[in-house]
């Protein structure tokens, strides 16, 4: 066997989110979440665009009344709520060291602003953590993964209201106290920067209720930064020895050419992406954002003590999702083109997935090196994977060699970064079992090593079936990344 460059104890595993996995949206005392209101829109009607925002109060009221759609895929997920033992047994068979999952806030506090938690919700996660422990799998738990209770949107317009800081901290302290003997790895907010492109999903904001969208988004983000720092403080006090991190949707950006205009544009895009981790890891607002705030009429309302809280309670590690890289130009006309999930210019040197996400394994090594140079804290890749159409062959097999190729190339580059001296804690592939897509609510966009028999409309047996990549990843873990 080849020698592995991955450290002993490296946390191999897979990643999921409650809203894409659990189902049972109206069982066990759970309240509605923001994602429960996102309806399915067929691909031919939206192209490559994301389709997950609810933009107005009227739209939300119509959805609540049942007007416009009866297909809300995130309400059904893949029924992990009832099948978690079967699924965890499959993760254990692959050899998972860790399983990234989220707790659904409205399963614990159905409205989000209650004082007393829902015991049925707490007991469900007790059972999940006990099952993971039985198989020797460490849970990595995200506190807020696009799971804001819908009531907090309706009553407070989400994170625009400072009161959500207290509600979130109460929720965090409740689950820290409950699971302090079962969970030692935590994340605060999933892909915290997504609020800038999807205010509803990232921060629970209905944009028709605010005057200045940018002002509302960055004020909401300030409240999340404070809530995150206070959750870090609470975690360290309640669970000594626990580690708690932040989570970023990483968008490494290249300059289109060596023109200084393009290089400057790429640098500024990179800074806008890393602003969030600058605050959560370094503990203060970076000076380069002052001009952006001024030019966009943004004034952050800070309370006395906010800056001290941010500075005194930074995260222990930085986690991020990595799916693609971006290309930026100094020409505004070129930047109107679409090439990726966010926006940008297509990179002629890269191939793209079925959903237009450009595939760049070497970009992962680049971003690992740059982020470690910048922060000097442990890094954790908590999402990476290929969304693709999978075909069940006549013999029942799923020959997903394209997924193996994608992941092998990315893991190889992660190993190169580790050889370069980057401290990487672990790797959890996104959607280790097929689940509902966050951006498009599709089931047909599959990421998993495990196939789930369900289509975009909820038809199917929900039978679990191993893909070819299942045994491949099992061997990757068994050899600690030495055999790809």
Characterization of this structure:
This protein is of the alpha/beta class and 484 residues long. The chain has a single domain, classed as TIM Barrel (Alpha-Beta Barrel). It is built from 17 helices and twelve strands. The chain has an eight-stranded parallel barrel with strand order 1-2-3-4-5-7-9-10, surrounded by five helices. It has a two-stranded parallel sheet with strand order 6-8. Helix 15 packs parallel to helix 16 (401-419). The longest helix has 26 residues, at 213-238. It is globular and about 60 Å long. The termini are close together. 49% of the residues are buried. The mean pLDDT is 94.
Rg (C-alpha, Å): 21 Å
The chain-level mean pLDDT equals 94
The count of domains is 1
Q: Which CATH architecture?
A: Alpha-Beta Barrel
Q: What would CATH call the homologous superfamily? A: Glycosidases
Assembly of the depicted chains: single chain
Counting DSSP E segments of at least 2 residues, the number of strands comes to 12
- Major sheet characteristics: 8 strands, parallel, barrel
Q: Percent range for helical residues?
A: 25-40%
The tally of helices reads: 17
End-to-end CA span: 11 Å
Instruction: Assign an overall shape.
Output: globular
- Indicate the CATH topology: TIM Barrel
* Unreliable spans: none
Pfam families: Glyco_hydro_1 (PF00232)
Protein name: Glycoside hydrolase family 1 protein
GO cellular component, one term: cytosol
GO biological process, one term: carbohydrate catabolic process
């Amino acid at each position: 066997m080849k020698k592995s460059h991955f450290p002993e104890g490296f946390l191999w595993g897979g990643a999921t989110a409650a809203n894409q996995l659990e189902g049972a949206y109206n069982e066990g005392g759970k309240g509605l979440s923001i994602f429960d209101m996102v309806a399915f829109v067929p691909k031919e009607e939206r192209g490559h665009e994301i389709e997950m925002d609810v933009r107005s109060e009227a739209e939300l009221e119509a959805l609540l009344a049942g007007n416009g759609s009866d297909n809300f895929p995130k309400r059904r997920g893949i029924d992990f709520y009832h099948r978690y033992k079967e699924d965890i047994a499959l993760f254990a068979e692959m050899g998972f060291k860790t399983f990234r999952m989220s707790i659904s806030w409205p399963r614990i506090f159905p409205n989000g602003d209650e004082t007393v938690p829902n015991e049925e919700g707490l007991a469900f996660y007790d059972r999940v953590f006990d099952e993971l422990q039985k198989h020797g799998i460490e849970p990595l738990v995200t506190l807020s993964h696009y799971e804001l209770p819908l009531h907090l949107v309706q009553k407070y317009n989400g994170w625009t209201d400072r009161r959500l800081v207290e509600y979130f901290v109460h929720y965090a302290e409740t689950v820290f106290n409950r699971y302090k003997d079962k969970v030692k790895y935590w994340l605060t907010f999933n892909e915290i920067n997504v609020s800038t492109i999807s205010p509803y999903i990232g921060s629970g904001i209905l944009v028709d209720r605010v005057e200045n969208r940018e002002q509302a988004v960055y004020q909401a983000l300030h409240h999340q930064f404070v809530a995150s720092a206070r959750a870090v403080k609470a975690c360290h006090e309640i669970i000594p020895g626990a580690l708690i991190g932040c989570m970023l949707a990483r968008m490494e950006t290249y300059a289109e050419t060596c023109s200084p205009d393009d290089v400057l544009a790429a640098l500024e895009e990179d800074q806008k992406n890393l602003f969030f981790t600058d605050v959560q890891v370094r503990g203060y607002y970076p000076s380069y954002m002052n001009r952006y705030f001024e030019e966009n009429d943004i004034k952050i309302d800070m309370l006395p003590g906010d800056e001290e809280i941010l500075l005194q309670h930074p995260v222990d590690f930085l986690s991020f999702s990595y799916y693609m890289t971006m290309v930026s130009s100094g020409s505004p006309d070129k930047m109107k083109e679409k090439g990726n999930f966010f926006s940008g210019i297509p990179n002629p040197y890269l191939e793209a997935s079925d959903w237009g996400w450009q595939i760049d394994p070497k970009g992962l090594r680049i971003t690992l090196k740059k982020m470690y140079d910048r922060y000097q804290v442990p890094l954790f890749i908590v999402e990476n994977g290929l969304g693709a159409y999978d075909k069940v062959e006549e013999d029942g097999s799923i020959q997903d060699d394209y997924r193996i190729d994608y992941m092998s190339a990315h893991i190889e580059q992660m190993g190169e970064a580790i050889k370069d001296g980057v401290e990487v804690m672990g790797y959890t592939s996104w959607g280790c079992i097929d689940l509902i897509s966050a951006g498009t609510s599709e089931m047909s966009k599959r990421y998993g090593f495990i196939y789930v028999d369900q289509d975009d409309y909820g038809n199917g047996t929900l039978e679990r079936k191993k893909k070819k990549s299942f045994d491949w990843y099992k061997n990757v873990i068994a050899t600690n990344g030495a055999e790809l």
